[in-house]
Amino acid sequence: MFTPSQRRQLPAASRRQAEGQGIVAVDRRGKHQLIRLANGASIHVHFLLDGDWSFTLLPDAPPRFARVEIVLDDGTRVSLTDPRALCIVKVYTAANPPTLKIGPDADDPGVTAGFFGARLARRRVAIKVALLDQKLLAGIGNIYAAEALWRARISPEAPADSLSAARVTRLLASVRDALADGVARAVRYRTSDRADQFHVYDREGKPCDRCGMILRRLIQGGRSTCYCPRCQRR
C-alpha cells in the first residue's frame, strides 16, 4: 500500500482475511470489481476515474502511481495504479459481504429499451445528469455519456423523462456502442491526444464530425459536457 487513504481502507485485520487465499472468481459491474476468495471473503475494488490494473514481476520496480498491490504465489505483482489516488479497495468477510448499490451494466441482457425508459421516466433531470447516476446503469462516466448522446442525436439538456420510446431505444443502443468503442480502443486513456479519438468529449470549439457545426460546452452537475448544438436536439 502506498497512500494513507489506502492504508486506512486496508487495516492489518482486513489484509489477513485475504493473505494466503486462492482467487475463485472475479466479477465486475461498471467500475466495480469483486475478487472472490476461497475462504468466502471478497476484495471490493472501485476504480473511480483512472484506476487500472498493472502486472509486473516482484524483482521489477512497481509501476508509477501504484496504490495497492496483490502478490500472487507465482511471483506476479498485481498493482492497482491510479494517478489521482481516488480508487477504493476494501476487504469484506464472508459474514459481511459487500453490497453494490448500483444499477445493472448497460450490456446486461435484462436491460431492454422498456426497462431503460421506465427508469428514465422517473427522473426529472437533464438526460446527461441522469446517465451519470450509477443507480440508473452502471459504468457510464462523463466521457461516454457525452459520446452516447452525440451518437443518439439527443441534447444533453433534454429532460430525461421527456424522451420518446424511439429516442430511448436509440440512446440505449448508442450507450452500448460508445462503451464498446471505448473497450476496443482503451489505449486512448494513455495518450496525450485522446480528445482526437472522441466525437465530442473535450472538443469544444472544434467542428462536429457529423454536421460541421462548432461544438459547444456547458457545465452540468459540476461536470463538463461538449455537444453539437445543431444535430443534438432537445
Structural notes for this entry:
This protein has 234 residues and is of the alpha+beta class. Helices cover 25% and strands 22% of the residues. It has six helices and nine strands, in the order ααβββββββααααββ. Strands 1-2-3-7 form a four-stranded antiparallel sheet, covered by helices on one side. Helix 3 crosses helix 6 and helix 5 (142-152) crosses helix 6. The longest helix is centred in the C-terminal third of the chain and has 20 residues, at 165-184. It is elongated and about 55 Å long.
Number of helices: 6
**Structural class per helix/strand content?**
alpha+beta
> What is the average per-residue confidence, as pLDDT, rounded to a whole number?
89
Widest sheet, order of strands? 1-2-3-7
Q: What is the CATH class name of the largest domain?
A: Mainly Alpha
Element-by-element helix/strand order: HHEEEEEEEHHHHEE
Secondary structure topology:
Blueprint: H1 4-9, H2 12-18, E1 23-29, E2 32-37, E3 42-46, E4 52-57, E5 66-71, E6 76-81, E7 88-92, H3 113-120, H4 127-132, H5 142-152, H6 165-184, E8 216-220, E9 223-227
Helix pairs in contact: 3-6, 5-6
Q: Main traits of this protein?
A:
234 residues, alpha+beta, N-terminal domain of MutM-like DNA repair proteins, 2 domains, four-stranded antiparallel β-sheet, 6 helices
Concise structural overview:
The chain has 234 residues and is an alpha+beta fold.
